[in-house]
Amino acid sequence: MTQIVPLSDARHLPLWRRPTTLLFLMAAAMPVAFATWSALLNNFTIEVAGFDGSDIGWLHTVREIPGFLAVGVIAIIIFLREQILGLVSLALLGAATAVTAWFPSLGGILTITMLSSIGFHYYETVNQSLQLQWLDKLRAPKMLGWLVAAGSAATLVVYLIIVTLWDTLGLTYNIVYLASGGFTALVAIFALFAYPQFEAPNPQVKKMVLRRRYWLYYALQFMAGARRQIFVVFAGFMMVERFGFDVHEVTALFLINLVANMAFAPLMGHAVARYGERNTLIFEYVGLALVFLAYGGIYMFGWGVILAATLYVIDHILFALALALKTYFQKIADPGDIAPTAAVAFTINHIAAVFLPALLGYLWLISPQAVFGLASGMALVSLMLACFIPRHPAPGNETRFATPMVRPAE
């Protein structure tokens, strides 16, 4: 029989069975599959499948379609609890990642990528909702930072294995994908049976929610999705295509990112708690605009691999500040809006992601620096939007244009 435990009673459970522990377990399990898939992807597609810039663009367009359809989570949670949906999606991500190397062709990779992406995006949608429901507003920034660090620490072990043993033991794409994806799937199955189902105090609205007063959050999500696609798709691809990075070298770069995240993500959470969402997001977007301009300079002026790798790490660190966007929404939202708005926000985040990688893949063939210049412009638009966040976000004070204490009409 399913055990349902209200959040208020969860403190009486053993520490390992509490909601926060489950969040940390999921945070550690998901990147093992997804980050390993990402680390090997560029080498796998170039060396095994013979991808060019256009092919990689189409792959990421297909990968983002489930994110665009994340609004479907709202329909699913009518029949299935969010916690269960999140764990089932996590298991799907792991299983699809495990068999990635079995399909070394454009059609096969696109198909298996679609399946793993359904798992990833539905998991992320539900996970964000659960985090904001299960963590109180005062602790959320710091805890979100620690959750990022936990994911980085778990993946660190995997990347160390790849870097040190890829050549030594003659590891293959199949072995690594099977091990990492299988681990994630097993953890998800364990969590399905080992944890009770936690009941948040505020029932979630189980229909699409689009509120006028959330407009700034929607706009920031849209820009974040468009801007991030350029980093995810083309920054790593540049390291392999232009500088000829091998698998263990790409993984070493990811390894540095993990160590940086372990060190800086908790500090990012503290920074959000201390300086507020507006200031931290402004800092992030200024930094990203400069980094993307420098990426373009690498192609235009022939700057070297050391600078490219350094920028890649800085880029990754700055993206950790995106947790401020989550806490901004948590502060302005009605408690019952969290689940449906998380799904809507994921769809908005992926509107540009559905077509942008494929279109920019063709632009990449002509001018890689133009791709990064466009990303820098997107960061500046995000900077302008971040300036509209009030110092103390709250319901009725969602933007600097709102009149505090007066709730705008929906």
Describe this structure as you would to a colleague:
The protein is mostly helical and 410 residues long. The protein has one domain: Growth Hormone, Chain: A. 73% of the residues lie in helices and 1% in strands. The protein has a two-stranded parallel sheet. Helix 1 packs parallel to helix 4 and helix 5 runs antiparallel to helix 12. The chain is globular, with a radius of gyration of 21 Å. It starts with a strand and ends in a 24-residue tail after the last helix. 52% of the residues are buried. The C terminus is likely disordered.
Write the layout of secondary structure elements.
Layout: E1 4-6, H1 19-48, H2 53-68, H3 73-76, H4 82-98, H5 106-134, H6 140-165, H7 173-194, E2 197-199, H8 215-241, H9 247-301, H10 305-319, H11 323-332, H12 338-349, H13 351-366, H14 368-386
Helix pairs in contact: 1-4, 1-5, 1-6, 1-7, 1-9, 2-5, 2-8, 2-13, 4-5, 4-7, 5-12, 6-9, 8-10, 8-12, 8-13, 8-14, 9-10, 9-11, 9-14, 13-14
Fill in the keyword field for this structure:
410 residues; Growth Hormone, Chain: A; 73% helix; globular
Distance between the termini: 41 Å
Kindly provide the name of the CATH class: Mainly Alpha
Task: Please give the domain count.
Answer: 1
Principal-axis shape? globular
Sequence of secondary-structure elements: EHHHHHHHEHHHHHHH
Helical coverage, percent range:
over 70%
Task: Profile the largest sheet.
Answer: 2 strands, parallel
CATH topology: Growth Hormone, Chain: A
**Radius of gyration, rounded?**
21 Å
Lateral arrangement of strands in the main beta sheet: 1-2
Count of helices? Answer: 14
CATH 2nd-level architecture: Up-down Bundle
Query: Averaged pLDDT, please?
Result: 83
- Helix and strand content put the structural class at mainly alpha
Number of strands: 2
| Unreliably modeled segments | 405-410
CATH homologous superfamily designation = MFS general substrate transporter like domains
Strand content: under 5%
